[in-house]
Amino acid sequence: MHAENPREPAHDPLLQPFHLKHLRLKNRVMSTAHEPAYSEDGMPKDRYRAYHVEKAKGGLAMTMTAGTAVVSPDSPPAFGNLFAYDDAIVPWVRRMTDEIHEHDCAAMIQISHLGRRTGWGQDAWLPVVAPSALREPAHRAHPKAAEIWDINRIVADYADAAERMQAGGMDGVEVEAYGHLFDQFWSPATNHRTDEWGGSFENRMRFPLAVLRAIRSRVGSQYLVGVRMAVDETRPDGIDTPTGIVILEQLAAEGLIDFVNVIRGSIVNDAVLSDVIPIQGMPAAPHLEFAGMVRERTGLAVFHAAKIDDVATARHAVREGKVDMIGMTRAHLADPYLVRKIELGQEATIRPCVGATYCLDRIYMAGEALCIHNAATGRELTMPHVIEPAATARRVLVVGAGVGGLEAARVAAERGHQVTVLEAMPWPGGQLRLAARNTRRRDLLGIVEWRVSELERLGVDVRYDTFADADAIDALTPDVVIIATGGLPQNPPIEAGGDLMVNAWDVVGGDARLTGDVVLYDDDGTHSAMTTAEMLARSGARVEIVTPERTMGVDVGGLNLVPYARAFNETDTRVTLNQRVRSISRDQSGRLRVQIGSDHSPVRHDRLVDAVVGDHGVLANDELYHELVHASTNLGELDHRAFIDGGPQTICTNPDGRYQLFRIGDAVAGRNIHAAVYDALRLCKDL
Known about the structure:
Blueprint: E1 18-20, E2 23-25, E3 29-31, H1 46-57, E4 62-70, H2 89-101, E5 106-112, E6 129-130, E7 144-145, H3 148-167, E8 172-177, H4 181-186, H5 201-204, H6 206-219, E9 224-232, H7 241-253, E10 259-264, H8 270-276, H9 288-298, E11 301-304, H10 311-319, E12 325-327, H11 329-334, H12 338-343, H13 358-366, E13 395-399, H14 403-414, E14 418-422, H15 431-435, H16 445-458, E15 461-463, H17 470-475, E16 480-483, E17 487-489, E18 501-503, H18 504-509, E19 517-522, H19 527-538, E20 542-546, H20 558-570, E21 574-576, E22 580-586, E23 592-598, E24 601-609, E25 611-615, E26 618-620, H21 623-628, H22 640-645, E27 660-663, H23 673-684
Parallel strand pairs: 3-4, 3-12, 4-5, 5-8, 6-7, 8-9, 9-10, 10-11, 11-12, 13-14, 13-16, 14-15, 16-27, 18-25, 19-20, 19-25, 20-21
Antiparallel strand pairs: 1-2, 17-26, 22-23, 23-24
Helix pairs in contact: 1-2, 3-6, 8-20, 14-16, 14-23
């Protein structure tokens, strides 16, 4: 007899159906509620719909939309939330659910009142409302304590919102119960009321019970209703595990909920939020055992998502009975076709989530979720996840095997072109290999490793230790040349003593080993300087970070800043804001005298240190590109309109040229990983 192979579709735990009341879910994989901030006017219009429909095409069983759809006008959006309080949302929801359902995928939506977890200075400019006038550190608004008429109004708003979602074809609604108004009432950490809506457990439960009863009375007993709940807030003044279990048992016994999406922790600031939504360098699936305990104790259907970013962990979670449905939310931003690839036995081709959390941080920084290395996510209307073959095969030469070059080679090869990559170093990865020298961030290497594996599968000719010049390129007779040579590090400009400044790359790369007192002059605000400072501090150097910005790591993002801030606190690293290094000179003792000044005042101060490290980003390594321009058919010109709109490049200003010539990523100007990947995708998808 042959043993069953769990990876065969018939035996794979992830591919078994699950029945949630009347709803049959075709497998055990879902995308949990999150807000990618793709809404327009509070509605899930074309971009929003296309994002969720693509995941449905990719094979998952259910997508939970919104994170969260707000039920009242005095719950203004904090991150592009949908307006569940507006009747205009119903036809948009209906169109989205209909298209999701076409792919045998269920659709639910999360609804909530944000309570104190938002700001007042937008939309209707209404005051933020909460059980008590306690300010949330993350969003900083000072709320008013809800009056009885507020409570009655908001309870009705929840019921109205659920009815709208039912009318829009949603298979169910999930009520947000971690850090929002709903559970701000039942948590003693946020409810300090002394009336009938606060104090005792029974009083604190009065509002959430009223909400769920109102929803049930409106949508009926057969409609699916659940909660995404912090079953344990992991704070001494909050809900603990025994209390959380009692709450769930009470809600289930009354028939108010059909499932629980398990959360463990609090979200009042970035530090604790990173424990709920772990980032790279943190343990995988940290709350999975907790979710399994909740399932065992309550008997409820359990959903769960928290750094379940690989198939093996997801498979284990279902096989061992920890969950009924496993959320692979960030993993689906990286690859919406994850489930389809499992079904086809192509797990090795799944684009991995590397835990960079660029997706979440960018929501707050720039108002949209983007995957660090899948540029099609969120751009489904113009960028393909599945590359179509070209009508005619061409010879494509890519110079540089950094992230941008590898992506250009991958996309061109998927198009069916004959692709050659020339890389001067003995290995691929470029600057990303430096970033991964920080052991917390080594998972970034998955961005490179996946592409190298794909190039092998696609038969791309990659030549390492190969210096590219005009003669070498001509010898390969390419039709298209793509320069992806990246950038070279530069130090910040200063008035004097620039030759005494060490570059951050040399520190991270190990060429410069510094001890003693070190000033790190961060005039770029990216991961590069933060990683350098962290590595220096952890190695024992006494570090002072000097930056002209109003905050350190200004382009890093809140969740990613947490481990840096933790490292700087633990090593007593000094952070000096609104200051620049003006000059450096050698002291008689051999140490360095550093003059520091501000853009805001002529006053300057001195530091006496052992080393100064600088970070000012990169300059384009574009010498080869300029050498080749005259031999190209387009003289290096990029059709910006086509590039923006996702169309092909057809400019021909030099008919005697030998090839089209383009450059991407940092070879154009210093940017980031996502920019290089996006450059490559939109350039090569129509080659």
